């Protein structure tokens, strides 16, 4: 269980995030949406102890992420390409992450077999460093890297961006499958409302750092989100 209490982040005089209380139970597929600058990456960065909160705290199974290390065994993430190691080949990177998560090379090799289709023949045995892969293929490496060891909680920032439509479909299937069968908790931020509603059983909408909607996904959710953004565009054009 992830528990977020009175969390805020202030840069200079600007409060870029403030959430009173938010709890994310184990096994939830949690989608985070909002316009540019809404605070999505800030929330994930606080969760991963990449930045310090101005107030409040985030706990994972009772451990405050900025006070103790226990949560690190349970959580993996791909936020952006700073998570990659450009001078490694994808295989070297996957083995490195496997080692970190207690997986042998043989286990990593057998785990990677299920991604043959996802990688489309362009990642494994390609004899290329990660830095020389296309942006989309780098993203695939980062996403699969976050999945190695089947961590309990997987955080993906904008996983669908830069992926071709076939890969987006494969990724959506994987997220749904892992949520149902492996009881993994996914936290996914995206600008793509359709993808997010398809894979998430709950969606939180941030607007200018505030939580403005917290919705259990139903057939109406996509329309509700589209209406919210359409209305905010209309209101802006009146200003
Ligand atoms: N180091 C920093 N210093 C000052 N302001 C920052 C810093 N990091 C983020 N911000 C600001 O915090 C706000 C929230 O940014 P954040 O990256 O969390 O938004 P986001 O919802 O992830 O946006 P996007 O959809 O564009 O990725 C923005 O106004 C951003 O400019």
Q: Would you kindly provide a written description of the structure presented here, covering whatever features stand out?
A:
The protein has 239 residues and is of the alpha/beta class. The chain has a domain at 1-73 and 194-239: 3-Layer(aba) Sandwich (Rossmann fold), CATH 3.40.50.300. 36% of the residues lie in helices and 26% in strands. The chain contains eight helices and ten strands. It has helices spanning 40-47, 90-100, 105-112, 116-119, 135-147, 165-182, 193-199, 221-238, and strands at residues 2-11, 14-24, 29-33, 55-60, 63-64, 75-78, 153-157, 185-189, 202-207, 210-216. The strands form two sheets. The chain has a six-stranded mixed sheet, sandwiched between helices. The longest helix has 18 residues, at 165-182. The model has no long low-confidence stretch (mean pLDDT 95). It binds adenosine-5'-triphosphate. Adenosine-5'-triphosphate binds at residues 11, 16, 34, 36-42. Keywords: ATP-binding, Nucleotide-binding, Transport. One of its GO terms (molecular function) is ATP hydrolysis activity. Residues 2-233 form the ABC transporter domain. This is ABC transporter ATP-binding protein.
